[in-house]
Design a protein that fits this description.
six-stranded mixed beta sheet, about 140 residues, single chain
Length: about 140
């Protein structure tokens, strides 16, 4: 059984990333009291973000995820980008020693009014799949093929 600790990042990342471009949110996982690895990075911004900023945030998520996969020998890392009420979940996977894939898992929109809350129910299936995927992320070694 692994213990999970969720925290907001406000310290210098250990993997050498730029402090000014740190993620807003990460999930750190400890297994059997061993040093942690991060299996989730998220970027949160208000709805007034420009398209260029959104692209830069997306790129930063990919860099953070790739560094964590590389330094911790992970199979994948989960990411999300929240721009206003729209949240998009991604997975960066490492299926082969020289290949990385960045996959969009699901977009979810948080309702702004009580009348729109029924639309959130339709997103529960996607959110459950993302939660299950999150639990499968491990630091399994990648074998050379």
């Amino acid at each position: 059984m692994d213990e999970k600790m969720t925290k907001c990042t406000n310290t210098i990342p250990e993997n050498g990333t730029d402090v000014g471009r740190r993620p807003d949110y990460e999930v750190t996982t400890y297994e059997q009291y061993q040093p942690p690895f991060r299996r989730y990075f998220g970027k949160l911004k208000g709805g007034e973000s420009s398209d260029i900023s959104a692209i830069m945030y997306f790129y930063c998520l990919g860099v953070f995820a790739k560094l964590e996969i590389f330094t911790r020998n992970l199979t994948s890392v989960l990411c999300s980008q929240a721009l206003g009420t729209a949240i998009t979940f991604y997975a960066l996977t490492h299926p082969h020693p020289r290949i990385y894939t960045f996959i969009e898992l699901a977009p979810v929109t948080i309702p702004k009014t009580k009348n729109a809350i029924m639309f959130m129910i339709s997103a529960f299936d996607d959110l459950f799949k993302i939660a299950v995927y999150h639990r499968t992320i491990s630091n399994t070694p990648i074998t050379n093929a």
